[in-house]
Amino acid sequence: xxxxxxxxxxxLNDAQAIQRIATSLGDLASxxxxxxxxxxxxxxxxxxxxxxxxxxxxxxxxxxTHLRTQFPSGRVTVITQDVLKFDFAAASAAAGQKxxxxxxxxxxxxxxxxxxxxxxxxxxxxxxxxVQREVANRIVAKPGSRDYGLLSVTVxxxxxxESLFSLPPESFSPxxxxxxxxxxxxxxxxxxxxxxxxxxxxxxxxxxxxxKRKTLANNLRAAGFSTAAFAAATELTNIDPRARAEALPIExxxxxxxxxx
Length: 261
Known about the structure:
By secondary structure, this protein is an alpha/beta fold. It is built from 12 helices and 9 strands. The chain folds into 2 domains: 5-189, 3-Layer(aba) Sandwich (Rossmann fold), CATH 3.40.50; 193-260, rRNA adenine dimethylase, C-terminal domain (Helicase, Ruva Protein, domain 3). The strands form 2 sheets. Strands 4-3-2-5-6-9-7 form a 7-stranded mixed β-sheet. A two-stranded antiparallel sheet has the order 1-8.
């Protein structure tokens, strides 16, 4: 099937990588898997061979038609829809279980899809996703590293993420301009554990990382926090007021949020 670059279509054609993605999801014998952007169906076939049911969410109607002719409807249900509008909660309720997610994500809307999955976390168990390597590095980054930032904290607040393997452009047709990385994300939100509120903590983190070169104090002052309140909070939490957000683990960011409330 010809790819449509405007839709971010780069079809995976590495047979070994396809099998590694499928096996990285674990035991699928009784599970429903949602595949994001199945494209020409390379990964879909590997999933259908292992899972009880595959929901293939494909935006391109031409590819969706191709998938319906390629796979039996009893094992694979093709849904012609933008995944950003897909109702994971309804699909989970219909399946009677939390869903497993797989997909080679379109690079142009990777962040939006990750946020969609995070918002749907109550309906999800785990995901194995392929993204641009630089994005994966940011997702799994640890405090103090060059890649650690807002995306790292946001994703990891919804559960642990780990890189599995990377692929060169030649593994795809047409080849993208960048390397790709497959990572696994297990959905286990940390908000209650850390004593923070989802609706308020993430905006706080966004402000803390607003300008990477600035200190935490400067970023939060620019966001409207008073100098006195910030000083009191850092003293209470024993956090260096001159630190940058990229140096603080999630636990320290949560402690600081609790202190400034």
